[in-house]
Structure formats: structure tokens, C-alpha cells
Amino acid sequence: MKQKSPKKEKQPLLGAHMSSGGGAEKAIDRGLSIGCTAIQLFVKNNMQWFASPFSDKEIGAFLDHPQRGELGSIFAHSGYLINLAATTEDFHEKSLRSLREELVRADQLQLPFIVLHPGAHMGAGVEAGLDKIVKSIDGIFAAIPKVKTKIALETTAGQGSSLGHTFEHLEYILKNVRQPERLCVCVDTAHLFAAGYDVSTQTGAKKVFAQFHKLIGFDRLAALHLNDSKVPLASHVDRHEHIGKGKIGIEGFRYVMNEPKFTKVPKVLETPKGKEMTEDVENMALLRSLIDK
Questions:
Q1: What structural domains does the chain harbor?
Q2: What is the helix, strand, coil percentage profile of the chain, to 5?
Q3: Can you give the pTM of this predicted structure?
Q4: pLDDT, tens digit, for every residue of 203-214?
Q5: 3-class DSSP state for residue 191?
């Protein structure tokens, strides 16, 4: 009697951030080599402001990759220098130009969104910082009207003067930009926990995401960064740890992996790893083991 093959829909959209060293198409190879069904990548060096434009050859190598379709989701993360709430004019102008260029690059690779840390107010205050982010986003989108790639605002740990560590911060940005349809949200579990949202139990995680839905809406949730936290609840420090080895533990991730509303939401690791990526393999295996059979 012929055995039935496993149902493909049981495979979660799960993966990790992949290096794009050697070309963006290499991130696809790296992800597939360890069994990812979703990946995140940088569209340029994440610690440099700018990069030479993609050549047609580079774009083609990515778009025409014979196995690109095997990944259910590929999206980008912006560079770490960008701060849309920067108080110095030069820094702010570089941030605007850098994000504008990254959005164009991501759009050339046909990526649906690019994850962005909203910004840090640098002492100007929360309200002033949020308003500057709103104006910055408006200006960026006005300059690139045909770009389809969205900005996915990421929840932050609230380290220093960083904004985005409360759902209310993100709600404010979404409600005040001119083109909210060009924005979505990425939730990072380690950042949530460090910001004071207790997702260490299934009940706690369910309550936190219910609050998220009330203020922002699950329709805005574009991606989940699945990271455990090296630091305690409400510590406001951004330190990622391997799944189950940090202060969050296993149960919060069990909720995320089984919540039907998150089935089509890509879940990507940003945990420490070596060149062989064995840590990613182990973390993904653990996360898959949490799925109810």
C-alpha cells in the first residue's frame, strides 16, 4: 500500500537571517542548505551607509535563481546605521538617503518588505522623535512612488532612546503617515520581552498578541523574529539567545508556532551562529518540535 507523503502545509514558514556575502543569490543557497522555508537578508553591507547600485547581472542572478521558489518568503532587513529620528541634520539626511536606496534595492529583488528599527530620539523626547519618523517616512515614500517594497516597522527593546518598544509607538506612526498602506510590522520576541511584554508563557504570549491585534492588527503583521533573550523581562537591553536557552524559555514559542493566525507569517531566527549554521538547524528543529501534531 502506497504511503501518503507528509502534508506540505504542515511545513511552517521558518528560517533564519542569511548572509548575502558574495551576492544576494547566495543567501538563497545558504537558506536552502539548512532547510529554511523563509529567509531574511541584507540588501547591502549593514554597517555602511551606501553601496554601488545592483548590476543587471546581480539582479538576474537573484530573480532567476532556479530554487528561489522553494522559499515561501524572502524579505530584507535595513542597515543598522539608519535613524529616522536623528537630531543632527547630516546624520538624518544620510539616514533618509540610505533607506531610500535600500528600498529601491529590495524592490529590484522583488522583496515584499524591509524590516526597519524605527529610530532613536537622541534626547529630543518621544513625541518629537515619533513625529520626525512620520515625516521622514512620508518624505521617503514621496521620493520613490513606484517602489512596491514596504517598510516593516520592528518592535524594539527600548535600549537608550530607541523608539518602537511599545505597541503605542508603532500605532502612532501607522496612524499619522500619509501612506499607511506602505507600512507593516515585524515583531521580535526578544525585543518584546526586554521591552516588558511577558511572552514567556503561552497565556502571557496570547495576551500580548491580543494587545498587538487591538492596537495594530494582525493584518499588519508581516514577519516574526524568533529570538530568546539573554536578559530579564523589562531590562530594555537587546541581547538575543538561542531558543529555550534564554529568559523567555520554550512555552511562549510554543504559542507562536501553533497560533493559526501566524501560519502564513514568516518566522525567522536572528540568533548567534557560526559558518556551518548548525545553531540555526538546532533552533529550527526545536521550534518545529513545538508544533502540535
A1: 12-289 (3.20.20.150)
A2: 40, 15, 45
A3: 0.94
A4: 999 999 999 999
A5: helix
